[in-house]
Amino acid sequence: MQRINAGRRAAVKSGGALAIIAAAVSAGILPASAFAADWNKVAFDAKNLNDVVKALGGSGVEKSNDIAITAPDIAENGAVVPIAVASKIANTQSIAILVEKNPAALAAQFDIPAGTEANVGTRVKMGQSSNIHAVIKAGGKYYVATKEVKVTLGGCGG
Predict the structure, then answer these.
(1) Least confident of 5-9, 50-54, 119-123
(2) CA–CA distance, 64 with 135 (Å, rounded to integer)
(3) One domain, residues 19 and 61
(4) What pLDDT score does 28 carry?
(5) Rounded CA gap, 94 and 142, in Å?
């Protein structure tokens, strides 16, 4: 029994889990989109709002009151800060969540299929108190709303 468990651990450590997932994709059990291979590395490496918007294909942003950010005013633990964004902007195509003072500003990006409600939620890591920006792409334009979140215990190593 020990030999089997050691073999299983070695397979997982050496990428055996990835091989199993790849086999499931090729067999049609999992969709190929589960790999998210077409992520925008430049956008996720950007350091500020303007650079993220440029990497996403925009030239600037316009403030909007039609974007609602739900996040705590004070996050007691920066390692898990819940954030939700809802857009009332017609034909919302994507929602991006940025944490201004994180080393990489873009924390998440969601594509919104046509005809669906533009409402997403996730948890992000925040190293310190910062502004949260919700960037909405709709009709080829970019819109933004901002909310400040204070962090009492940092989540990025602090």
Answers:
(1) 5-9
(2) 10
(3) no
(4) 56
(5) 9
Give the pLDDT score at 158. Answer: 45
Q: Are residues 10 and 87 in the same domain?
A: no
Query: What is the Cα–Cα distance from 44 to 72, expressed in whole angstroms?
Result: 24
Domain hosting 45: range is 39-151
Q: Convert the pLDDT of each residue in 50-94 to its tens digit.
A: 889 998 899 999 999 999 999 999 998 999 999 999 999 999 999
Domain count for the chain? 2
Looking at the structure, tell me whether residues 18 and 74 fall in a common domain: no
98 plus 23 within the same structural domain: no
Beta-carbon contacts of 77 under 8 Å, excluding residues fewer than 6 positions away, are 152, 153, 155
Token reading at 94:
């994507």
Give SS3 for 9.
helix
Q: Is the same domain home to 127 and 110?
A: yes
Q: Does pTM surpass 0.90? A: no
